[in-house]
Amino acid sequence: MIWSRFNTFEGIPCPTALGDVTLVVQVIPSLLVLSCVLLLAAFIRHSLRVDGFSNKCVFITGCDSGFGNLLARRLDRKGLRVIAACLTEKGASDLSAAASPALKTLMLDVTDSESIRRAAEFVSREVGERGLWGLVNNAGRSVPIGPTDWMQLEDFTKVLDVNLIGVIDVTLQFLPLLKKAQGRVVNVWGVEAFSDSLRRDMQHFGIKVSIIEPGFFKTGVTQLDLIEADLRRLWTRLPQDMLVMITFICFYLSDVKAQEFSMGIFCCPDIAKVTRCMEHALTARFPRTRYSAGWDAKLFWIPLSYLPSFVSDFNAAYFLCVTVFMLD
């Protein structure tokens, strides 16, 4: 037959044109059905929630404003028992006024181990033998920030003490309570390696660890006036041999303009995109390991992190040049 299923070419079976078409017509509907089934299964799995919200207690750091403040109020409205840690008395009183009487606040400095110990003791008395269901390490800071050669060791330490060492210290001191409840840890900011090792080590205890990878959002961490003020502080302490006009123009102005330009493009006012991820990590039966929040994280920053270094280096240099020329 001229349209037989297989012809031979030098003794090897080969599909004919008609055979190919028939095969495609048969396979495509099956693939579409399989894709729909998998998507439906993923949606159902994503939507499943744990039970007994009223018996579950969540401890959140950095609740004066931003993500932590909104998450505390959202979870409080859902009926979870929330203990919100604030750095300032004003932050604590404002949050208490905006939430139900069930929400409790306490003062916490994540750079002070003694402060963390007192917080852990308070939470332990509150949760008893049930243990702590959720720990959200949300406290963070963005300044000092600037060109590397403008910085001193103490500048790096100020950021790391909150965003890394503070996260580790809080987590370690609260782990016994989390083990009792086989609870959840939700980390934010730059603690990828710690979160990965913690997740693997805690699997045996039934503790799940999720990482929130947000893009730029309008919170206290991204306030341009604070960032610019800190850049000015760094500038004023530079040694005389660096205080030349060309350095100022090329580095200081470009850094400020780059911050303003990038925040204008990427910074999203809807911080609920982040707290919804946190909420899912705490209440879902099957929480994800990683959550990307914001279109810039999904489509720009995370994909960029997987590309070769020269691509990200070129992107940073190009972005800086475009910023300076556009805003001159």
Automatic annotation (TrEMBL):
Output the PANTHER family linked to this UniProt entry: RETINOL DEHYDROGENASE 7, SHORT-CHAIN DEHYDROGENASE/REDUCTASE FAMILY 9C
**What is the superkingdom listed in this entry's lineage?**
Eukaryota
Q: Please state what the protein is called.
A: Retinol dehydrogenase 1
Which keywords appear in this protein's UniProt record, sorted alphabetically?
A: Membrane, Transmembrane, Transmembrane helix
> Which Pfam families does the protein's record reference?
adh_short
**Gene3D superfamilies referenced in this protein's UniProt entry, alphabetically:** NAD(P)-binding Rossmann-like Domain
Q: Which family does it belong to?
A: Belongs to the short-chain dehydrogenases/reductases (SDR) family.
Q: Which residues cross the membrane?
A: 23-44
Name any Gene Ontology BP term: steroid metabolic process
Keyword Membrane present in the record's keywords: the answer is yes
Recorded GO molecular functions are: oxidoreductase activity
